[in-house]
Amino acid sequence: MGARVLVVDDEEEVRKVLRLHLTKEGFNVIEAVDGEKGIEKVREGDNPLMLDVIICDIRMPKISGTEAIAYFRREFPSTPVIVLTGFPDTELAVDLMKKGVLDYLVKPVSKDQLIAVVQKAVKERLKSPEARKTI
Amino acid sequence: MPNLLIIDDDRAHTETLTDIFQEEGLKVASATTGHNGIEYVKREKFQVIILDLKLPDRNGLDILKELLSLDAGGRIIVITGFATTENAIRALNEGASYYITKPFDIDELKALVRKAIAQSQLATEKKIAETEIIRLKEYNENILASLPYALIIFDRSLKIEYVNSVYLRDFSLKREMVIGKNLFETLALIAYQTEIIQKDVDNFLSGTPQESRKIKIDDRMFGYHLFYVLKGASEVQKTGLIMRDITSEIKVQQQLIQSEKLAGIGTMASGIAHEVNNPLFGVMGMAEAILDEEDPHLIKEYARDIVNYSKQAAAVVKGLNIYARSTQAGDFKLIDVNENLDEALKIVRHSIELDRIDIAKDYKANEKILINSGELQQVFGNIIRNAAQAMNGKGRLEISTRNNEDSVLIKISDSGPGIPKAHLGKIFDPFFTTKDPGKGTGLGLNIVHRIVRNYDGMVEVESEEGKGATFTIKFPIKK
Questions:
Q1: C-alpha distance from A132 to closest chain B C-alpha (Å)
Q2: What is the pLDDT of residues B343-357, one digit of tens each?
Q3: φ, ψ of residue B57 in degrees (nearest 5)
């Protein structure tokens, strides 16, 4: 079973590209249209829906990416988070890295770079106790 | 203690008088010759001088003249031994205050001395008062000249009574050209469009209070204000007009508006980067997907997506151009508010999503207003952007315009969460914002307020929590 990746972004084209790239590489992609939906998905069900990687944008309506990310890091610290944003903000990047975000990507990002970072995330995930149970 | 000088060569006589007047409480000095008397007066001030016209060294009348020319301030009583009125009258003509003939009644002399002292004191007081009046006049004039305002005082018939030096300097006029002339004629000398001041003066004189206003004179801006001059019981009502050169203040305001635009651009930059990079990611991703794809149908689909995403990115850049154009000053002309609202909507669209907002337009205004198009777009743009952000990109935006013969009215309502009562009084304050740090400068509505007030308009907000907010903007129609 491929690793499960949650994609949180309010732009349709971004979700479509991520879905295409990740599915082609064998990942299971779950989509959420904003921070609120992202948090919902993460809490849905129990083990079957436990996520291995979260890819999240910052600028989103309703709950902002930063809030959602704070939530993910707090409640699911063993699930690595990758930030994928359109606006390069080094201050914010440093801040997020300090809060435990695994990597910070700026759109547009090539497929190769994306897959490389997701694979790094999965490796991180495998180090955690829960992951060893499900994967 | 008053000083008395006796100039008389009769020593015994002088001694007697000295005793008598010392008893009266005077300080007495005496001289036996005219020369000595004059020396005394050169050194001291005397309130009274008793001068015997018959002196050994010089002619009494000459002494009298010299004493008077010394201007010691004293009153002179001449004593003449010859009962000739001629001498006495000559002495009085020369400037002596009184004369008395020997032999005289000492009481009469005492009375004369007393009178002389009283008059001397009066003269001194008068001099002090005059000096004070001159000083006050100068003080007054200095104050009026130091005011940073041009000041004109005129009466009910519009005759100019007083202008201060600032007025003369500001408008390169000479006092003679202005004092006593008619106010309106004088104003016409300095500016062509003074009808508005004239209208205000007429209204003011007929009892309607007037607001301060702005007027353009040459290439300067002046703020002016009418006021009643406080009057004493018997005086006639005067009116004052002050005019203040506010050209540099207006410049600073415009700079503030400009820097808010620049600050706004900073906020916009992140929005634009977001909005260009997203479709760009779509284009790149779809192209990469095509490279990995064999199925021609899917390839076509991805290619179609690339076209759409590219168009999106192009639209964002185009929107930026519209905004850039609006920051250029100088498009000051008659503007159709309906058109300007539509342009503002276009600009707002590329920093915030408006697609999920129902925009209801009710454009009924058919009068134009004289304003800078870029500034008006800022006013509308800021309010619309705030409304869209309040509604989180989803809801209903109602924009209506109408006019009467005096003004154009624009209303912008949103269906957002409304503004709490505690904030209503502050939303136009500079730096007041309820957004997260970095998501707004808090100057947007303050700039709206400044721009609107600059054009003598008015902006108000009504809101109830849970029921959205309505901004009402009113601009006067200036002919």
A1: 32
A2: 888 878 767 777 788
A3: -90, -35
